Amino acid sequence: MRPPVPRHRPSDEGPVGPRPRVYSPDLTPPWKKSRPVQEVPADPGLVVEEPGTGFCGAVIRCEAGTVTLEDRFGAHRVFPLQPRGFLLEGRVVTLVKPAGGPVRPTRTASGSVAVPGARARVARAGRIYVEGRHDAELVEKVWGDDLRLEGVVVEYLEGVDDLPSIVADFAPGPGARLGVLVDHLVPGSKEWRIAQAVTGEDALVVGHPYIDVWEAVKPSALGITAWPRVPHGQDWKTGVCRALGWPENTGAAWQHILSRVRTYKDLEPELLGCVERLIDHVTVP
Fold first, then answer.
1. Of 96, 118, 137, which closes a domain?
2. Which phi and psi (to 5°) does residue 252 adopt?
3. pLDDT of 85 higher than 50
4. How many whole angstroms separate alpha carbon 12 and alpha carbon 210?
């Protein structure tokens, strides 16, 4: 009769039973535990990856303990400057603020070349009026730097019905041109006839093709596939909020939309063309 074969205990079993598992209280990710890493200045254009999110982009701004990256699609993300916080060509690095001070954008939100330290020009006689408060806020956010540099003042137009009196009081001429951006103009409508009546060599009225300026923001900037279709006869903004599951507070919804617009790349080309045309009209001799 063969002697009994000794039983080998599993590696996790002690002399009197299973050993308790021991967990380290250090939850630092492994990629942050490696040997001392290189400190790299966050110079404009430096391409890095944030490992926690996988976001990869070029540095466009570095200030107040944060760095802003722009990916190849034009999306921006802000990350804290922390040790071992980024990957540079596959190597863990620590980004630090450049010795020359904060990194400023090399381009404005409209895509124009930024002019560091430039002061606002004395206001021109020419003006741009924008119909709708939301429209005016969007123009200011994207083109504000350019307009101040050119000395162009943007004023709020409450409605197209006020346009004839505004144009008459302004009296546009070669040295004081007037540009007006209005909501969707339907040929033959009352608003269209008013716009046609006041348009001249020194007064240009342009209508963007959208039901509301919200629609001029690309859906991708908001993380949606498309703007919802709202049934005819229903308030468009309220209908959008309902379809997207947002609270029916159009003011709060607009602030959310506006916060997602960072550069001209977040806007539809049709609106870009309208605004650039107006800026050229009031600034080109």
1. 96
2. -65, -35
3. yes
4. 67
Domain span holding position 53: 30-96
The single-letter DSSP state of residue 40 is E
DSSP conformation class of 113: B
Model confidence at 121, pLDDT cuts 50, 70, 90, reads very low
Same-domain pairing of 151 and 90: no
CB neighbour list of residue 128: distance below 8 Å, 6 or more residues apart: 139, 147, 152, 153, 154, 155, 178, 179, 180, 181, 278, 279, 282
CB-based contacts of 285: which residues, under 8 Å, 6+ apart?
A: none
Could you give the CA distance from residue 94 to residue 264 in angstroms, rounded to a whole number? 31
Report yes or no: 143 and 279 within 8 Å, Cβ to Cβ.
Answer: yes
Domain assignment present for residue 256? The answer is no
First to last CA, the chain: 112
Q: How many domains does the chain have?
A: 2
- Is 150 within the bounds of a domain? yes
**What CA–CA distance (Å, rounded) separates 218 from 226?**
8
Q: Are 215 and 190 in contact (CB under 8 A)?
A: no
Give the residue-averaged pLDDT of 101-125. 54
267 in the same domain as 161: yes
pLDDT in tens, 166-212: 999 989 988 889 999 998 888 888 889 999 999 989 999 999 889 89
Q: Is the distance from CB of 50 to CB of 94 less than 8 angstroms?
A: no
What SS3 state is found at 242?
helix
Buried b (16+ CB within 10 A) or exposed e, 34-71: eeebeebebeeebebbbeeeeeebebbbbeeeebbbbe
The tens digit of pLDDT for each residue in 58-71 reads 888 887 788 888 87
Give how far the C-alpha of residue 227 lies from the chain's centroid of Cα atoms, to the nearest Å.
Answer: 17
Q: Are residues 79 and 140 in the same domain?
A: no
Pairing of strands 91-96, 86-88: antiparallel
